[in-house]
Design brief:
Elements lengths: L6 H10 L3 E3 L11 E3 L1 H20 L4 E3 L8 H7 L1 H4 L1 E6 L6 E3 L4 E2 L27 E2 L13 E4 L3 E4 L7 E4 L5 H6 L1 H7 L6 E10 L14 E11 L4 H18 L7 E5 L11 E9 L5 E12 L1 H11 L1 H6 L23 E3 L4 E3 L2 E8 H12 E6 L2 E6 L10 E5 L6 H13 L4 E3 L5 H11 L3 E5 L1 H6 L1 E6 L5 E5 H11 L3
Parallel strand pairs: 3-11, 21-22, 21-23
Antiparallel strand pairs: 1-2, 4-5, 4-8, 6-7, 9-10, 11-12, 12-18, 13-14, 14-15, 15-18, 16-17, 19-20, 23-24, 24-25
Helix pairs in contact: 2-10, 3-8
The protein binds adenosine-5'-triphosphate.
Length: 492
Amino acid sequence: MAKITKLDDIVSLCKRRGFIFQSSEIYGGLASCYDYGPLGVELKRNVRKAWWKSVVQTRDDVVGLDCSILMHPLVWKASGHADKFADLIAECKKCNTRSRIDHLKEKSNTADDEHTEHISIDAAQAHAHDLTNKICPACGAVGNFTEPMPFRLMFETQMGANVDDSMKMFLRPETAQGIFVNFRNVLDTARVKIPFGIAQIGKSFRNEVTTKAFIFRTREFEQAELEFFCEPGTDEKWYEHWKEKRFNWYLALGIKKENLQFRQHDPDELAHYAKACVDIEYKFPFGSGDWQELEGIANRTDYDLRQHQRGIRTLNDWFENNNDLSKIQLKAEDPDYHKGPLSYFDQENKKRYIPYVIEPSAGIDRSTLAFLVDAYDEEQVRGETRNLLRFHPQLAPIKTAVFPLVKKEGMPDTAKKICNELKKYFNCFYDQKGAIGRRYRRQDEAGTPFCVTIDGQTKEDNTVTLRDRDSMEQIRLSTDKLSGYLRKKLEM
Ligand code: ATP
């Protein structure tokens, strides 16, 4: 029976095998920032690649985009982030630790409920929260908090060297807005017709109040987002389509069904612009096992495109106020907004409208963590513990390892030749160090699906041993068939 995975086991394997390191570790580390090591970078690239393949490459109704992280400050005014993207926090009067109030646990009820949406930067809202029974996660004091206050989540920076023309900028807190502001560009150049989607993978930044559990919640992270534009009235159909597609993506890449669920947002939990929203949740091994958001899928209606039409109308005020966002109010919406610059003209039916948007928004780091947790296994083999990562072949950082059984009789040369041949198609690793059993175990821990061993028989009949990571079964295969066989098994 597989042992219940603890996050500590994963963290230690990730460090030991070079998947993930603490950022700036030789300087004592930087909280909530992580670096991907040689195996981790391959794993994360494979997660990205699998998302892109499913959402863009294999469809004819989605195109890709790669936007800059720094964007015009008015983008964040129009999107609502400049005014609304904040968490309500309270400070513990005993130990001065600040916490998100929606993350605080009740004294009598320790359920970890983290599902509150970000709120408006409007202190009036803060008074509605009763913290008398809430526990400080740092010192355990109960009900000893300051009044809740809003804390802005966007990182600020400065652009330009001269005082006169320098501007306060934000690092993007989501990739989605880059897609909305390029809607017209894509429409005019890519010969797309509604319904169609624009997809993007990239870094986002949020000055999270509390970070959590390894790479689950960090301040710099990668998102994979799709904005799927459709005609109003067809939005519910597309919402269901993407719910199913995205859920099945995780299953197809090996996530166990019992660890994955939908959580529909209650109407009072929905962001003001969203018509519906559902989270895909994974049962992470925090505490006693926590269902946590892996991806959100929202029906964002026509909200964002309409907001950016207001943003464009506000440009004159922007110049008149010397690029000072704090002095700007968004202009009211044009009564003829549905004919605005971000509207769509349906040639066939001769009608113009602002499209609705379905948005599946996934975290690349968070899903990488889920894939690691789900693949992790320990089993007893002949009195020894075998640690392994049962990665789906598409995700495995190394696809095949090649070993000479011993360092003589020309075996290393043959093994290197085979390894170089296989490298043309996928990541292949050569290893001649240590006993063969130990070399197998090292690859099990890296999640390598296959190992190929060259031995004495290879010279005689041109066959090698092929070992399967999961079953540990070994078969003999002729070297001319090796590449074809592996590529089929690995779906490469
Ligand atoms: P939360 O309420 O947990 O802060 P959210 O609901 O605001 O998160 P979204 O804005 O919906 O998150 O972001 C979409 C996805 O991006 C999330 O499902 C998650 O996978 C990823 N994500 C968001 N914030 C972070 C973070 N701080 N670290 C890592 N991944 C993140």
